[in-house]
């Protein structure tokens, strides 16, 4: 009996309790939290990892389902899972920030479509860069590192004592600023060339006011932007790997200390 006349198998209740943290992480994390991923797949993965956690850790769920302590424990589990997914999701916002900077300067900021990751409209250039970051994330086994951190989190933050301290919450907040820094550095090679082009166009407009620069500046910005993207994309890919390593390192620091 688990309270209010409710009877449930202890093993099933333990599995459901463990799945709270894992499911919350999958909801907030990239790749796993994509709207295109069916809910049944997400629940099945949470259950499979939950069985792995129960086989490697001694998890004691709250004795009563309908109790204040149970609700507090479930909230703590959800907080830990959401924090883990939020760290990775913050890193995945860097390409969108970079695309806003580059696309606005190139004049293609109006080109947008529905992002399959979150179901919202986003710049086409940002979707391209997000797809590349996702492929790099999968190529370096970032999804497996996330699963490994989820399993290890039950040892570092066992259920019942899973509240994140003020120092860890502060680290999560500070890591949110890394998304803007990473987006700026990601857009820096192309953005610098476009800035130089705008300076040249501005000098031409002052030197020859009668010259119609709108018919020259827009095609020039688009051409320079496309060429700069083609040339700088290998270096941008290398920095995307740095973003992934930083996010996984921050995840490890938050969970394991």
From TrEMBL:
Listed name of the protein: Flagellar biosynthetic protein FliR
InterPro entries: FliR, T3SS_IM_R
Classification of source organism: Bacteria, Pseudomonadati, Pseudomonadota, Alphaproteobacteria, Sphingomonadales
Chain coiled-coil ranges: none
Function comment: Role in flagellar biosynthesis.
Gene that this sequence comes from: fliR
Annotated organism of origin: Sphingomonas aurea
NCBIfam families found in the cross-reference section: fliR (TIGR01400)
Entry annotated with the keyword Membrane: yes
Alphabetical UniProt keywords: Bacterial flagellum, Cell membrane, Cell projection, Cilium, Flagellum, Membrane, Transmembrane, Transmembrane helix
Keyword Endoplasmic reticulum found: no
Transmembrane segments: 12-32, 39-60, 66-88, 95-114, 126-151, 172-201, 213-235
Main location: membrane
Subcellular location: Cell membrane; Bacterial flagellum basal body
Family recorded in the similarity comment: Belongs to the FliR/MopE/SpaR family.
Organism superkingdom: Bacteria
Membrane topology listed for this record: Multi-pass membrane protein
């Amino acid at each position: 009996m688990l309270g209010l006349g409710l009877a449930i198998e202890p093993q099933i209740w333990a599995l459901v309790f463990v799945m709270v943290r894992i499911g919350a992480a999958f909801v907030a994390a990239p790749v796993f939290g994509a709207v295109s991923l069916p809910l049944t797949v997400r629940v099945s993965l949470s259950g499979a990892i939950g069985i792995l956690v129960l086989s490697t850790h001694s998890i004691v769920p709250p004795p009563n389902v309908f109790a204040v302590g149970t609700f507090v424990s479930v909230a703590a589990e959800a907080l830990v899972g959401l924090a883990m997914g939020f760290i990775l999701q913050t890193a995945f916002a860097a390409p969108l920030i970079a695309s806003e900077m580059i696309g606005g300067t190139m004049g293609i900021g109006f080109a947008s479509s529905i992002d399959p990751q979150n179901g919202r409209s986003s710049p086409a250039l940002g979707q391209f860069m997000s797809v590349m970051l996702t492929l790099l994330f999968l190529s370096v086994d970032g999804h497996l590192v996330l699963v490994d951190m989820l399993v290890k989190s039950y040892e570092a933050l066992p259920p019942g004592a899973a509240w994140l301290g003020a120092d860890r919450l502060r680290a999560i907040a500070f890591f949110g600023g890394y998304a803007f820094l990473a987006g700026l550095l990601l857009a820096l090679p192309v953005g610098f060339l476009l800035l130089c082009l705008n300076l040249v166009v501005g000098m031409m407009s002052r030197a020859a006011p009668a010259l119609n620069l709108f018919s020259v500046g827009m095609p020039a910005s688009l051409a320079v932007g496309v060429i700069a993207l083609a040339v700088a994309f290998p270096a941008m890919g290398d920095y995307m790997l740095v973003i992934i390593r930083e996010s996984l390192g921050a995840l490890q620091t938050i969970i394991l200390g």
